[in-house]
Amino acid sequence: MTLKTWFSLGLLVLLVHLVLLQKIPLHVPALPQEGSSSFATRTVVLATSSKPAPSKTVAIEGKPARRTAPKPKPVRQPVTAPAPSVPADISSAMAAADTTDTDVNPVVEPTAEPIASPASAPASVPIPATEQPLVSAEPAPVMEAGPVLPVQEVAFRADGLPGSVKLVYRVDANKFPYTLRSELTWQHDESSYQAHLSINALGQSRVQTSRGTIDQLGLAPERFSDKYRSELAAHFNRAQGLVSFSANTPSIPLQPGAQDRLSVLAQLAALVASAPQGFSPGTTLQVQTIGPRSADLWLFTFGNMETLELPGGTQQGLKLVRQPRQMYDQKLEVWLAPGLAYLPARIRITEANGDYVDQKWEATAATVSP
């Protein structure tokens, strides 16, 4: 091969290398350095059925995937309310009209063996604060009361006391579907009195008794008893100025003109008869009233004379109302009838939950003095 031929081949090879060099890129991407941050991907799977949700899977480049357990969803517990109590028999129905020592009930008093206690009520699941029900209740109309008049400041005349008599009442109550009868026997002479109130049904009875003397303020009770299965009594010690109780509750100071839950009815009758025009609507009379276990100040607000259609006939009645003072107090309404020497023609007791006992005059019978 001649020199010219070798020179031509060398020139051809040189041209080929030049073409290849022009096609090579001018810069090369940098490789990742050790310790630099890596890109992470996350996959979340949503549950589409009632089966438990699968765990979340997190994949990180260069590291094994980690599995995390799903958080359990809170389960809302059902809310249950206690079922309303229903009297088991007539004895519980008769006792249910007066469930606390300070309740107003001159007819049916608290029993020595209470029917039920709050602990016996079924428990309920607390309602979350965000789900508390909204309760709106309109308050019952309250008779406007004037200045409070202590009973000892009201004039009393002995001739204002009703004569000895027996009154028979028909008793209606929403806790039992049948009608009962009650009897109020009132007897007195010039210096002493006694009163007896009983309610009977199906062999069960409830009896209240009050006895005492008559002084310048009116009736002065000496002993008040309430008997239902067992007897509870309050004793008036006027020499010491105290009232003591057979229920072993603490003794309390005795105020002037104090009455028990039965004598207060006859005392009101005598005071109104002594001055029929002295009790205008809105007049409020304050009386310390003694029960079988304790005492309370009863405030009677006088209303208007009303016409009453009763089982024994039509009577006019001067209405008095003792409004509840505490959350669970009872409301007492009394209608004093001039035709019955201002003894009650009707007595209605309404509990805080709406239950009631309503006594309506049905007949009058004669009785002798003690």
What does this structure look like?
This protein has 370 residues and is mainly beta. The chain has a domain at 148-366: outer membrane lipoprotein receptor (LolB), chain A (Clam). Helix content is 11%, strand content 38%. The chain is built from 3 helices and 19 strands. The protein has helices at residues 3-23, 90-95, 263-274; strands at residues 40-43, 56-60, 63-68, 148-150, 165-173, 180-188, 192-201, 204-215, 218-228, 230-237, 242-245, 252-253, 259-260, 284-290, 295-310, 313-322, 331-336, 344-350, 356-366. The protein has a 16-stranded mixed β-sheet that branches. A 3-stranded antiparallel β-sheet has the order 1-2-3, with no helix packed on it.
- SS element count, helices: 3
The coarse silhouette is rod-shaped
Helix content: 10-25%
Number of separate strands: 19
Q: C-alpha Rg, in Å?
A: 44 Å
CATH class of the domain at 148-366: Mainly Beta
Order of helices and strands: HEEEHEEEEEEEEEEHEEEEEE
Oligomer: single chain
Category from helices, strands and their pairing: mainly beta
What fold name goes in the CATH topology slot of the domain at 148-366? outer membrane lipoprotein receptor (LolB), chain A
- Major sheet description: 16 strands, mixed
CATH second-level architecture of the domain at 148-366? Clam
**Could you report the average pLDDT, rounded to the nearest whole number?**
76
**Low-pLDDT regions:** 26-41, 55-63, 78-142
Strand content: 35-45%
Features:
19 strands; rod-shaped; 3-stranded antiparallel beta sheet; mainly beta; 370 residues; outer membrane lipoprotein receptor (LolB), chain A; 3 helices; 11% helix; 16-stranded mixed beta sheet
